[in-house]
Design brief:
By secondary structure, this protein is mostly beta strands. The chain has one helix and five strands; from the N terminus they run E-E-H-E-E-E. Strands 1-2-3-4-5 form a five-stranded antiparallel sheet, with no helix packed on it. It is elongated. The chain starts with a strand and ends with a strand. The model has no long low-confidence stretch (mean pLDDT 93).
């Protein structure tokens, strides 16, 4: 969901809210449970669980050429492992037009 800031008097701002539920195939679950590793997941054991993500972000246009954005993500069962997390991820971004 993405909302422009018109209703609160900041037409160039954007508030965004998102959610995702991710899973692995049965073959991938078996591979990681047996100790397999990949680029982003796998640490010798997998107590499989769906990875659930909720994200909120706000982008504020400060000048005609500069916008700053803040972002927060809450991840349950990161890397599909119930033995990990939950984790909070914070982000900050600057966008400048020249």
């Amino acid at each position: 969901l993405s909302l422009k800031g018109t209703s609160w008097g900041r037409a160039d701002d954007t508030l965004a809210i998102a959610g995702a539920v991710n899973g692995l195939s049965s073959d991938a679950r078996a591979y990681f449970a047996a100790g397999g590793i990949g680029i982003l997941i796998g640490d010798g054991a997998l107590n499989y669980g769906l990875e659930k993500i909720v994200e909120v972000g706000y982008s504020a246009r400060l000048t005609p050429h500069l916008a700053l954005s803040l972002n927060y993500q809450h991840v349950t069962n990161p890397a599909y492992n119930r033995d990990r997390g939950p984790v909070s991820i914070y982000g900050f971004r600057a966008h400048a037009d020249f």
